Amino acid sequence: xxxxxxxxxxxxxxxxxxxxxxxxxxxxxxxxxxxxxxxxxxxxxxxxxxxxxxxxxxxxxxxxxxxxxxxxxxxxxxxxxxxxxxxxxxxxxxxxxxxxxxxxxxxxxxxxxxxxxxxxxxxxxxxxxxxxxxxxxxxxxxxxxxxxxxxxxxxxxxxxxxxxxxxxxxxxxxxxxxxxxxxxxxxxxxxxxxxxxxxxx
Length: 201
Known about the structure:
Elements: H1 3-11, H2 19-29, H3 42-54, E1 60-64, H4 72-87, E2 91-95, H5 99-105, E3 108-113, E4 116-122, H6 123-128, E5 131-138, E6 152-158, E7 161-167, H7 170-177, E8 182-188, H8 192-200
């Protein structure tokens, strides 16, 4: 089947004309509707699935790790589409381990453990916690002693490489790390799993 064949078949289940929405989404996601699905890359197959799920403008959108296989430019367009659907009144349930994706489109986050929701939290509260994943390497002539700072967890020291999860004032963090002569440093958003592991420990 070609992409358009599958999407038209999917649209036939709804009592509405979905052709304009199909063409709009295909243009936004840069999908060739005339191409056979079996010849598509993983990313393009993912686009077909996204369009298939949105072509009838559903009131509830459930997404599970939807951006895997999509290049960064298409990911941005995808999130713009989801935000647009949300602004039109659709409820979005979004599952992801990538914190930046959750922060981008969600108002609240639910923490699930062993199949049960054990806590819900506003994204604004999660962001205010200021969790960061810190990794740095010190120079060969340096000797690591310690990082004396509250809010550090899961610290891992491997010779000249040190990594940990940090929650607190970034200015204090940088001042403490600056005591060492650095070869490399990376400060980034941790994955949700890392935050939750830290949160529940």
